[in-house]
Hints:
Elements: H1 9-14, H2 28-44, H3 62-67, H4 71-87, E1 91-98, E2 107-115, E3 119-127, E4 133-138
Antiparallel strand pairs: 1-2, 2-3, 3-4
Helix pairs in contact: 2-4
Amino acid sequence: MSPNLGPSLYEVLTQNFSGGLPMQQVSEEDRRVLSVLDNLQRLFNSRAGQLAHLPDYGLPDMSQILQGMPSSAQELLRRLRQVIRKYEPRIMRLDIVLLPQTQPGQLAYSLEAELKGMGQVRFGTLFTAEGKVLVRHLRQQQWLAHNNQEP
């Protein structure tokens, strides 16, 4: 597997994905998906301006986004596209759709992406009122095939 398409250097060095899931327990295809998922999770839970050497890494303050609803949802969508294109090079094509709001103070998006050398994947993204962002890999059965558990 090409180094720029596989797991991140951090994952290779630790031999784990976030949450402590060992790489060797995951198929090669799922490794790539989980690595992208982990990177998106880190990116979305970082706030722009926190890193001096990468001032645009991350998203704006989520409390401001949630207070400005519903007009701020489109601004967040634009920012998501921007940071994903810049900081997740394994994604070739990206489609982000705002999902209906099911709880006040939460935003949900569906991210459909084409991964280089792999094909289509879909992630569900939930922005909570507490400012946390949860990213999940969605397959038709809604779970990863290797262990029927969420990443």
